[in-house]
Amino acid sequence: MKFPKDPVMLLSAVNTALRDYYKSFQELVEDNEVDGDEIIAKLASIDYHYDPAMNKFR
């Protein structure tokens, strides 16, 4: 899966993938061979952080 560069679009894509296909953010990162730290930093720039209990960025 190719993830968008725009943080708001990235948020939507990541949360949709987490909801529909992955049990954890780590699983998404490993399956897509992407830099999880980069995604976390981009989403933190718009004040969203991963909540493992809910398996989404909030």
Key descriptive features of the protein:
58 residues, mainly alpha, two-stranded antiparallel ribbon, 3 helices
Model description:
There is one protein chain. This protein has 58 residues and is mainly alpha-helical. 53% of the residues lie in helices and 7% in strands. It contains 3 helices and 2 strands. The longest helix has 14 residues, at 7-20. It is globular. The termini are far apart.
Question: What's the helix and strand layout?
Answer:
Elements: H1 7-20, H2 25-32, H3 36-44, E1 50-51, E2 56-57
Antiparallel strand pairs: 1-2
State the gist of this model:
The protein is built from three helices and two strands. The chain has helices at 7-20, 25-32, 36-44, and strands spanning 50-51, 56-57.
- What proportion of the residues form beta strands (DSSP E)? 5-15%
What oligomeric assembly is this protein in? single chain
Mean pLDDT: 98
Structural class: mainly alpha
Stretches with pLDDT under 50, minimum 5 residues: none
Q: How many beta strands in the DSSP annotation?
A: 2
- How many helix segments? 3
